[in-house]
Amino acid sequence: MQTVKMVVTGPFSAGKTEFIQSVSEIDVVSTERKISSPAERSVKESTTVAMDFGRITVDDDLVLYLFGTPGQKRFDFMWEILSEGMLGFIVMVDSTRPETFREARSILETFRAYAPTPYVVAANKQDREDAWDLEDMRHALRLDSKVKFLPCVATDKATVKSVLLELLYSILAEMESGG
Amino acid sequence: MALRGNLRDFTITQLLNLVNLAQKTGTLVVDGPSEQAYISFREGKLAYARVGHDDGSLAAVLHKANKLTVNQYRAIVERAGKITDKELGLLLINAGYLTQEEILLNLQGYFTEIIRRLFTWVEGFFRFEGEMLPPDDRINVRLDLENIIIEGSRQLREWEQLQDEIPSLEMALKFTDRPLKNVNLSVEEWRVVSYINPKNTMKQIAQTNKMNDLEVRRIVYGLLQAGLVEIIRPEGMVIPMSPKTFPTQNKEEQKSLVNKLIGRIRSL
To answer: Considering the domain boundaries, does residue B268 fall inside one?
Structure first.
């Protein structure tokens, strides 16, 4: 059995677990724990502390694993371990929480330094009224115009598929350009 | 137990806080990235400091502060073997050239500046020598550490923020399409800008310009915020793709595998 993996990363509460859940054929193997910090608990009740793990079977010989990283900075020792051997990565950003944009930028730079693999950035919660416009977010995140920056709703399978496909197209394009 | 350790585990600010609270007397010796610093304290107050090759003499301090001309400085240095700092200070006061307050203020400014430099050292080793006091011939000051500690804490926060913004100095920089016209850059910023090239990592730029990590990050952050540069992977730098990325090393098989993944995701 051949396996490949992609990593879904981003700040705390960006929607990484939901993203994986939307397309995984198994219930996501999640390492969620109750949040102890009152400030973080006001955002959500539990959070990923080690990793999330989803699976998509391609055929009898090939399986794609999706790994979600813990979003809190104090678990960042897991990031490098999870990034080892990844095909590419997705940075999830919560479009309604601009206070997390700087951290998202930092996570993106950290992952870029780990491995020369393609990546895309997904602007999650774009269905919400208070979501930032993509163009404004692109400026705030200081993303180059060449970086694929995609609207997403982590609970909506169609947008999740589109993000995964864009990443795969980037991987293929890089392979074809000899990268 | 000896007070010694690594700046990565115990910062300069924390050390100053400890000296202040414990009202320590002695000298903190810090081996930084390229030079050594000696900071002396008396009962928890800053008394004296010197760094690297600077001798920290009164003549040198006053010359740096433009209180002595080059000729005056040279004349004093030529007689250095015969005259102590304390004697020189008395001479300058008696000659009406400087007041005692001016001399002390200049020394305090010089010593504080050395500590500010130490705040930028994030790597290195330190040890506190309780028996080591400042040289007898040097003028000591008595400067409270609280304000210096507050300034250091502020700088530490800046360091943490800059590290978040620019996590790795192993990446390179390239200019964006925005021209560098009508931009007022400092000498230090120009020194960095002149080495910006997709082949040079930020670490290399810092080393070439003899800057520490904080200094180069601070400048790069300003350039990034102004939209003048962007961070890129260094050109020509081969970061080997992990052999675990693909189950096969054959390029065609790898492409076929990615195409299979695309087909599967589409069908979800």
So the answer is: no
